[in-house]
Amino acid sequence: MRARAPSLGSVALWALVGTILAVLVLPTLIVVPMSLTGDQYLGFPPRSWSLKWYTAYFSDAEWIRATLFSLEIAALTTVVATILGTCAALAIVRGDVKGLGWINAFTLAPMIVPHIVVAVAMYLTFARLGLTGTVLGFVIAHTILALPYVVLTVSATLYRLDPALEMAALNLGASRLQAFFQVTLPLSLPGIATAAAFAFIISLDEAVVSFFLSGVHVKTLTRKLFEDIDYSLSPVIASASTLLVVVSIAVMAAIELARRSVKR
Amino acid sequence: MAELKGAGGAPVSIAAVEKRFGSVAALQGVSLDAGAGEFLSLLGPSGSGKTTLLMMIAGFEIPDRGTIAIGGRDVTELPANQRNVGMVFQRYALFPHMTVAENIGFPLRMRGLARSEMSSRVEDALKLVRLDGYGTRLPSQLSGGQQQRVALARAVVFRPPVLLMDEPLAALDKKLRQAMQLEVRHLQRELGLTVLYVTHDQEEALTMSDRIAVLNDGRIEQIGRPEELYEMPASAFVADFIGETNFLSGDVVGLDARECRVLLDGDGLVTGRVAADGLAAGTGARLAVRPDRVRLGNAEGIEGTIAERIYSGAMLMLAVRIGETTTIMARGPSNGPDADRSVGDRVRVSWKPEDARVYPAAAER
Amino acid sequence: MTRWRQVRGGRWSPLAAMLLLSPMALLLIAGFFYPLVNLLGRSLWTPEFSLVHYERLLGEPLYLLILMRTLWIAGVVSVFTLLLGYPVALVMARLGGWKAALVAACVLVPLWTSALVRSYAWVVLLQRNGIVNDTLRGLGLTEQPLRLIHTEGALLVAMTHVLLPFMVLPIYSVLRAISTDLPRAAANLGAGTWSIFRHVTLPLSLPGVFAGTLMVFILSLGFYITPALVGGPRTLMIATLIGQQMTELLNWSFASAIAAALLAVTLLLVAAFRRVLRIDQMAGHAG
Ligand SMILES: Nc1ncnc2c1ncn2[C@@H]1O[C@H](COP(=O)(O)OP(=O)(O)O)[C@@H](O)[C@H]1O
Ligand SMILES: [Mg+2]
After folding, report:
1. pLDDT recorded at residue A11
2. Whose CA is nearest to atom 11 of ligand 1?
3. What are the backbone angles phi and psi of residue B163, rounded to the nearest 5°?
4. 3-state class of A55 per DSSP?
5. Distance CA C209, CA B32 (A)
6. In chain B, helix, strand, coil percent, each to 5?
7. Which residues of C touch B (CB under 8 A)?
8. CA nearest C6 in B: which residue?
9. What is the pLDDT of residues C3-52, one digit of tens each?
10. Per residue in A40-73, pLDDT tens?
11. B241, B43 in Cβ contact below 8 A?
12. B211-216 and B39-43 as β-strands: parallel, antiparallel, unpaired?
C-alpha cells in the first residue's frame, strides 16, 4: 500500500490549527517562566533565572493569608456544594417529581446569569447582612456558583446508572437509605468526585464575585491578584498565578485521568 | 440445601387491579390467583402490561384500583422492601461493585443475619445454582448464563415464598435458554416456590408453566393449563398468539349449541366448535384450526392445490391454496401419509369439527 | 400508610424528593434569587418608584455608546472565536489516539485555568516593553513601542483567547457525533474534499456552530475580568461600567439598573435560544 501524500489543503489546515493551539496555550503557561525570573521587573523572556519570587511569595504574609483564605473557602464550598448538589441530582433523576423543566431552569440559573450581575446583587444584599468579607458569605456565594456544575455532573452519572440496581436492593430488603449508601452512592462515586473537583476549582478560580465580596483585610487570592495586577508588575504575581494554574490543572487532569481509567 | 427451603410457596391473589400511566391504560381490571407452589406464566406481546403487573406485586407500582394479596395478607400498599418476594430482573441487576458472594449475601445482610449463618446460606445458594467456587468473582467476570444463575441464587437465598421473574432468559442464546428453563423449573420444584414468570415467548411459557395467563392490552384474555390454551383458546387472539393457527374468514350459515357452519369467503363450507359468544347466523366469523389437525385426502373437504412444500427434518409442512385468497397450512410427520404429495397436486382439506374453533369476526382487532 | 408515601417505579417518593431538593432550593432562593430581586428593586425604587436610572442608561450618549460597544465587541469576539475555533474543532474531531489527547489538552488547559491569570498574561505580553512590542521592534516594524494595552485591539485579542475553548467544544461534540459514514458515502459518490465539507460536514455541524457562537456572545456581553484588566477607559463595556459605578462612583442604584438590563438581555437570549444552547451539556466544560 502506498502512503497518500497529504494534500496542500490539509497541510495548510494543520499548520493553521497548530498555530492556533500554540497561541491558545502559550499565554496560559507563560506565567510559569515569567515567575522564574531573577529580574526585578516582569519581562519575557527573563534575563536570569531564580526562585526568589516564590520565596517572596511565601514570605509575604498578605499573599499567604489570601491563599489560605481561598483554600479554606474552596474546601468548604466543595463539601457544601457536593452534598447539596448530589441530593438535588438524586431528587431530579430518581425522585417522583413534577415540573422537571422548571427545576432544571431554577438549578442552572446561576450558570446563566453573568457573574458581574451576581456579584453586584450579592454584594448589595450581603453587605446589609454583614456577610461581605466573611467565610460564610463567600461559601454561600461560591456554593451557589458551583451548584449547577455539581448537579449536572452528578445527574449525568445517575442517568447512566441502571435504576433496576436500586430496585433490586429494595426488593432484597434494603431500606431507602441502605439502598442509597450501599448501591447508588458507591456506584456514582466517580461522578461525585468529579463534581467535587469542579466545585473546588470554580471556587478557587472565581474572581468577579470574590472581588466584590472581599473586604479590605479578608480577601481571596483572586482579589489580591486583581488588585496587584492593576497596581504593579512585580514578578511575585506571576508566582502566585503559577501556583493557581498548577493547582487547577493538576486537579482537573487527575479527574480526567481517573474518568478515563474508569471508562477504560 | 435443606437450609434454603423456607415455608414453601405462598398463594398470590390479584383482584380487579387497574393502572393508568397518563392516558395509557396499562392494566384494566386484572384478576388472577396463583396457588402456593404454582408456576404461573404471564404471557403477552410487548406493552400488554406484564411488567406493570409484576412491579405491582414487587411493590414498585401501586394499583389505581384493586388489591394484591400474598399468602392471604393484603400487601397492596406495603413498601417494596417489606414484601419479602424474590425477583429476577431482566438484565439481572447484579451489583457490579460487589462480589458474587456479597451479591447473594446482600438480602441476608439486610435482614441482619449472623456472619456464619450468612456464609453457609450463601454457600448453599451457590451450590444450588452450580456456581460453588465462584463466590469471590465480580459479576463482570462471569458469562451471561452464570450472571443469570447468581441473580437466581440472590433472589431465593432469603427464602421468599414467591419468586418474580421478568423475561429473565430473554438475553440468552437459544441453547443456554433451554438449559436455564429446565434449571429454573427444577429449582422451583426443589424449593416449592410460587413463581410468576413474565415472558413474551409462547414456547417458553408452554414448556415451563403449570398455568399461563395470556395478557393483551392490559386485560387477561385467558388463564389455563398449557394444553387448555393450546386446545381450547378462548379467543382468536389466544389462538393466534399460542402455537400456529390457520385463520379462515367467512359468514355463519348454521349454528347450534356446539357447532357452527361457516361459508368461507373463498367458497367452501366448513365446520368447527363454537368457541366464543357473539356468533349468529349471517354474521362474520373466523374459524381457527391448527396445521397439525388439518387432514389431506381425496374424498371429503374443500378442494385446493398444494402451493408449497416445506421440509424441516422431522416434520413436513404443506401449504394448500384454496381459491384466490386463502391458504391453509397442514403439518404432519415427514414420513407420514402425505410425504409423497408434491407442489401442484390437487387435494381436499378437512378436519374433525372438534379440532376447529369458530370466533366472531369482531374479535379481530 | 398513605399512597403518596409509596415509591413509584422504584423512585423516591415526592416528599423525599422535595426534602432532597430543599437545601439547594433554599440556598438559591435566599442567596441568589432574593439578591437579584433586591437588585431589581433598588434600580426601580429610590425610594419612590421611578425609571430614572433606566432613562439615564438609554438616554445619555455615553452609555448608549458603551452599550453599542459591548454588542460590537461581543459580536466581533464571536466571529473571531468561530473563525479560529472551527478549524481546531474539525481537526480535533478527525484525530484519534495521542494526537487527539494533545489537541484536547491544548483546548482544556486554558479552560481549566482562571481567566484572571490568562488576562494577566496578556497584560504582561502587551505592555510597553512586553514581548509583543519587543518583537515588533526587533523585526524593525516599529521605532517606538506601541501603546497596545488598554486598546480595543488588545481587548479583542485577549477576549478571543479567553473564550475560544467555549467555541471549540460545542462544535467538536457535534462534529464528533456526525457519522464518519456520511462524508465517506459522499466521497464514494465522487465528491471532493472541499465539496464534502461544504455540502455535508458544514451543514451538519451548524447546531454546534450556533451553540458555540451564542455561548461566546452571551459570555462576552457580561464579561468583566478581561475588559477590566486589558481594556481601558476607552473600551468600557457594560460589565466594567457596572463595576465602575459600584466601586468608584458608588452609584449603586444606577449600577443595579445596568445590571438588571444586562440580566434581562442575557435571559432573553437564553430563553429564545435555549434549544440551541444545550446548557446541560456544559457540565464537562466547567471552570
Ligand atoms: N412508568 C411508566 N410510565 C408511562 N407508561 C408506562 C410506564 N410503565 C409502563 N407504561 C406503559 O404501560 C403499558 C404496559 O407496559 P408494560 O407493563 O411494560 O408492558 P410489557 O411488560 O408487557 O411489555 C405500555 O403501553 C407502556 O408504555
Ligand atoms: Mg416488560
Report:
1. 81
2. B26
3. -120, 125
4. helix
5. 57
6. 30, 35, 35
7. 1, 3, 6-10
8. B79
9. 333 445 678 888 889 999 999 999 999 999 999 999 999 888 878 888 88
10. 777 767 778 888 888 888 988 888 999 999 999 9
11. yes
12. parallel
Domain ranges of chain A: 60-263
Grid cell for residue A229: 495586577
pLDDT (0 to 100) of residue A154: 93
Q: Rounded distance, CA C193 to CA B47, Å? A: 48
Query: Dihedral of CA B192/B196/B201/B203: which sign?
Result: positive
* Per-residue pLDDT band at C287 (split at 50, 70, 90): very low
The fold of B244-360 is: OB fold (Dihydrolipoamide Acetyltransferase, E2P) (2.40.50)
Residue C176: strand pairing partners: none
pTM (two decimals): 0.83
CB of C243 within 8 A of CB of C224? yes
Give yes or no for a contact between A215 and A132, defined as CB atoms under 8 angstroms apart: yes
Q: Pick from A96, A203, A211 the residue to mutate for testing the C interface (most C CBs within 10 Å).
A: A96
CB of B202 closer than 8 Å to CB of B43: yes
How much is the pLDDT for B165? Answer: 95
User: Chains that contact B by 3+ CB pairs under 8 Å?
Assistant: A, C
Among the four given CATH numbers 1.10.600.10, 1.10.3720.10, 3.40.50.1820, 3.10.20.880, the one describing domain C72-237: 1.10.3720.10
Mutation for A interface: C22, C39, C42, C116, most A CBs within 10 A: C116
User: Architecture of domain B2-236 in CATH?
Assistant: 3-Layer(aba) Sandwich (3.40)
Listed in sequence order, the residues at least 6 apart from B342 whose beta carbon sits closer than 8 Å to its beta carbon are B306, B309
From CA B174, how far away is CA B172, in angstroms rounded? Answer: 7
For residues B217 and C176, give the distance between their C-alpha atoms in angstroms, rounded to a whole number: 42
Give me the pLDDT at residue B4, please: 63
- Reference C85, options C212, C222, C199; nearest CA is C212
Lowest model confidence (mean pLDDT) among A158-167, B57-66, C271-280: C271-280
Sheet of B302-312, strand order = B295-297, B346-350, B302-312, B315-322, B326-333
The arrangement of secondary structure in A60-263, i.e. its CATH architecture, is Orthogonal Bundle (1.10)
Listed as ranges, residues in chain B with pLDDT below 70 are 1-7, 362-365
Q: How far is ligand 1, taken at its centre, from the CA of residue B40, in Å? A: 21
What is the per-residue pLDDT for A136? 95
User: How many whole angstroms from B140 Cα to the centroid of ligand 2?
Assistant: 24
Percent of chain A with pLDDT over 90: 43
C-alpha grid cell for residue C228? Answer: 477590566
Distances (CA, A) of A43 to A222, B151, B248, C121, C148: 22, 67, 95, 11, 16
Domain ranges (residues) in chain B: 2-236, 244-360
Specify the DSSP element, H or E, that contains A108.
helix A100-112
Please indicate if any CB of chain A lies within 8 Å of the CB of C167.
no
Nearest-Cα distance to chain A for B105, in Å, is 10
Each domain of chain C, given as residue ranges in start order, spans: 72-237
Whole-complex ipTM: 0.88
Question: Hey, what's the torsion of the CAs at A110, A111, A112, A116, to 10 degrees?
Answer: 70
Alpha-carbon distance B238 to B227, whole Å?
A: 12
B55 at C interface, C-beta within 8 A: yes
pLDDT digits (tens, 9 = 90+) for C222-235: 899 888 888 888 88
Q: How confident is the model at residue A259 (pLDDT cuts 50, 70, 90)?
A: confident
Cα–Cα distance between C216 and C264 in angstroms, integer? 17
Quick check: bond before B161 cis, omega within 30? no
pLDDT for B126 equals: 94
Task: Please give the grid coordinates belonging to residue C82.
Answer: 468561530
In angstroms, the CA C134 to CA C125 distance is: 10
Rg (CA), chain B: 25
For residue A154, give the nearest of A73, A88, A243, A229 by alpha carbon.
A88
Which residues sit with Cβ closer than 5 angstroms to ligand 2, an ion?
B 51
